[in-house]
Amino acid sequence: MPRPSDPNAKEKLLRAAEAEFAEKGLVRAKVEDITARAGLSKGSFYLHFQSKEDAFRNLVEGVLSRLGCFVDGEEMSAQELERLCGAPAALIEDWQSRDLETFEFIWQNRGLMGVVMEGGGGADYRHLVDTFADRAASRIAERLQRGVSFGVYRADLDIHTASLFIAGAYDRYARRVVRSAERPDLAAELRALRSMVLRAIGTPAVVALVESAAEAPAKPPRKRRKPKNTEEAA
Amino acid sequence: MPRPSDPNAKEKLLRAAEAEFAEKGLVRAKVEDITARAGLSKGSFYLHFQSKEDAFRNLVEGVLSRLGCFVDGEEMSAQELERLCGAPAALIEDWQSRDLETFEFIWQNRGLMGVVMEGGGGADYRHLVDTFADRAASRIAERLQRGVSFGVYRADLDIHTASLFIAGAYDRYARRVVRSAERPDLAAELRALRSMVLRAIGTPAVVALVESAAEAPAKPPRKRRKPKNTEEAA
Amino acid sequence: MPRPSDPNAKEKLLRAAEAEFAEKGLVRAKVEDITARAGLSKGSFYLHFQSKEDAFRNLVEGVLSRLGCFVDGEEMSAQELERLCGAPAALIEDWQSRDLETFEFIWQNRGLMGVVMEGGGGADYRHLVDTFADRAASRIAERLQRGVSFGVYRADLDIHTASLFIAGAYDRYARRVVRSAERPDLAAELRALRSMVLRAIGTPAVVALVESAAEAPAKPPRKRRKPKNTEEAA
Amino acid sequence: MPRPSDPNAKEKLLRAAEAEFAEKGLVRAKVEDITARAGLSKGSFYLHFQSKEDAFRNLVEGVLSRLGCFVDGEEMSAQELERLCGAPAALIEDWQSRDLETFEFIWQNRGLMGVVMEGGGGADYRHLVDTFADRAASRIAERLQRGVSFGVYRADLDIHTASLFIAGAYDRYARRVVRSAERPDLAAELRALRSMVLRAIGTPAVVALVESAAEAPAKPPRKRRKPKNTEEAA
DNA sequence: CATGAATGAGGGTTCATTCAT
DNA sequence: TATGAATGAACCCTCATTCAT
């Protein structure tokens, strides 16, 4: 006996699938459990997805693509860029602001991010994450390069090693956030993380700035786009 | 037609299981593939293990426990400790030497380490890795504390954040090693990684030391125990 | 969004169902494919048929019933009959004319005829075909009997075997027609077939007639009823 | 709980599959019913066959290949051939003997033959049957040609039409045999069928022979190979 | 009447595990 | 101990059918 048509069926299924995948990974998650969680019947799953893998791919590609937007960031005008780099404090605040947005998104989507980062999709999806990680490291390298040429970072910086290192630090932090039961104090922790990084790569002037600014309050992040999948709201 | 008793059967099965788990993860690895790879019959698997999960747990616990030995390190006499901490250069060399041993082990056991780190065992085994990571961070914290009290690291060091940060850096590097197709230059890469870390946490004197010693040759690691699972030898 | 009522819906569905059944048989044909081909919605199928099998039965019974009319033929007045049987050549022409009509119908409805003859409906529908075949053989037997009593066929004819044999020959030819990609030259092929049959059952006089008449042109068939399902027109 | 190893498992499964396919066709036959009929568990099916279709193909190809041996017949030495064709009566007896063997085989394997001939495997298997039918018609054409050149059949025989016609007659008879509930009197019916055919294609001398020999007893068939799948024995 | 999302029984296939030999 | 055929629970996916709109 069919239920009344539900215009949100696909969305409900995606939410349910996300939760099941987050809990059990691609292989152990059962289609029947997904549909049960969505309050639908088993068959309805296949009205919206080709297969279980299809739904998984949908979710993973979606979250990685949206995360990619944060990583790539907005275009910054040459003028704005020069202004910021001339004022290390402002540059650092911009950095913090971007980090906060990114990790806010990661926190909101921690279920899916967890599956993706912990390999819950099996080897077939690792390359997606690897590709993403490479892109992130490249972005960081670009910014380091820029920072060096503007005299914010040490001139003798080994940019390749440093970018891997920094990407690693963020990766590690992301894993921690994703597994947190409680919402972490993202602003404070990101500030601490960044202080560590700046100490390692900054010029003495920047290091001094970092040390003096340890207690400065963080500005709220600019709203660039509104995050989806707000698990918090559910 | 029973084959003659094989005293190495369990060992062969463990090696085969490790390889299959490394390639496919716990769920996708088939008992039949494991026994085929070991050159034994399907039934023989259950003469040595309660279940597929049992074999997996055996392997994971084994590798984590051996890795734990490296992390915990040998007891160091108070005298030796004081000597080392009075000579930062020696302390750093000791650190390098321990890192090298640890990562040598990780490289040798990269198959299993990969499954463990990439979540190939599903959510049920994450706590093992988490527990291990916590222990590692504690150890690092202890050593940071000691280093601070001996004046090697900056007195204002936020030990908690620093330990997470450092554990993260090593974790990240371990993931890279585990996925390398080619044997990485562990000594050089660990030296670079440590330099980064020391710049972030060391006193100015130590930072100077790091900068001047960039080209110093690493001593060969002390042999504390011989690593098992030498995939290289196979 | 309901479409405006379509008075041809049932007919469209029957045509689509026929095509799908012809291509895939009862089991492999999907209701959804049928309705899609008809340009209607899935649900509309059940406004016109109880079930997929119901539609299949409708079609099969329809085609067999219309084919039965050809086989049974029109009532022939005693007078007309006597006239024909007194003139073997005319009798043979009448036979050819009826065959042509029948096989024209078979060709036009080759899709459905194919499913029916090739068992595409499964064992449940075989009895329909069997019943039909029995009836056809009986009709042939009657005509053979009549032909014998009028001295057209050999007096020693084993009517039972002959009728099966002839029914078989037509059955076989029907299968060939039904599978032809190109429209076969029905008139010529039926003439050849009939010649073979007449040689086997005819009196020497008739055999001579057959041999001398090999090149006589066939008259166009009388139009008794107009065939439906004219696939050619579509 | 596994049953004791059964060396006949595959054979039992083939028999059971044959029966189920014969009753329900490829699509409607359920693997579970097949294994139940064989007294085995569902999973055991896949120890012996890749899939349900694989088992079906095995059976169909097997029966067609064995039937092909009958149709192709044994090589006949030129000497023997000449002797036989010089003595139409002997030639006809040889024909009868071969027919009897072939239809004995068809009767023994009527289950499978039924599925194959009635299209129970769907369109995918029709080409196998078509290919087989073409081969059979070619063989018949060859023999007709030989018979004509030896003066057994009418010199003006249209070999192509005749071969199709004869193949059709045998095809039709095979369908009847396959559906018989009771074992038909193969010898008598084949003899009748052959008489009809000979009347249609034979020279007057042969026709006379046929008419006089209607009551001659059939020789028992030479045993060329022992038929498998003897449903009668089961 | 028409629609098409929803339903859920059904069936093919996999594979961890057992146990007679 | 070793073997590998046998088992059967699980689970993915299909599709005929229903019914709220």
- Secondary-structure content class of chain A: mainly alpha
Q: Given the structure, what is the number of helices of chain A? A: 11
Largest sheet of chain A: none
Helix proportion of residues of chain A, in percent?
over 70%
Largest interface: C-D, 32 and 34 residues
CATH fold field value of the largest domain in chain A:
Tetracycline Repressor, domain 2
| Beta-strand residue fraction of chain A | under 5%
Distance between the termini of chain A: 28 Å
Summed over residues and divided by their number, the pLDDT of chain A gives a mean of 83
> What is the CA-based Rg of chain A, rounded?
20 Å
Overall, the morphology of chain A is elongated
Quickly count the domains of chain A: 2
* Secondary structure: number of strands of chain A: 0
Subunit arrangement of the protein: homotetramer
Uncertain spans of chain A, ≥5 residues at pLDDT below 50?
217-228, 230-234
* CATH architectural label of the largest domain in chain A: Orthogonal Bundle
Name of the CATH class of the largest domain in chain A: Mainly Alpha
What are the secondary-structure elements of chain A, in order, as H or E?
Answer: HHHHHHHHHHH
General description of the model:
- The structure is a homotetramer of 234-residue chains.
- With 234 residues, the first copy, chain A, is mainly alpha-helical.
- Chain A folds into two domains: 1-49, Arc Repressor Mutant, subunit A, CATH 1.10.10; 60-212, Orthogonal Bundle (Tetracycline Repressor, domain 2), CATH 1.10.357.
- Helix content of chain A is 70%, strand content 0%.
- The first copy, chain A, has helices spanning 9-28, 31-38, 45-48, 52-72, 78-86, 88-108, 110-117, 123-149, 159-179, 186-201, 204-212.
- The two termini of chain A are 28 Å apart.
- In chain A, 34% of the residues are buried.
- Mean pLDDT of chain A is 83; it is low at 217-228 and 230-234.
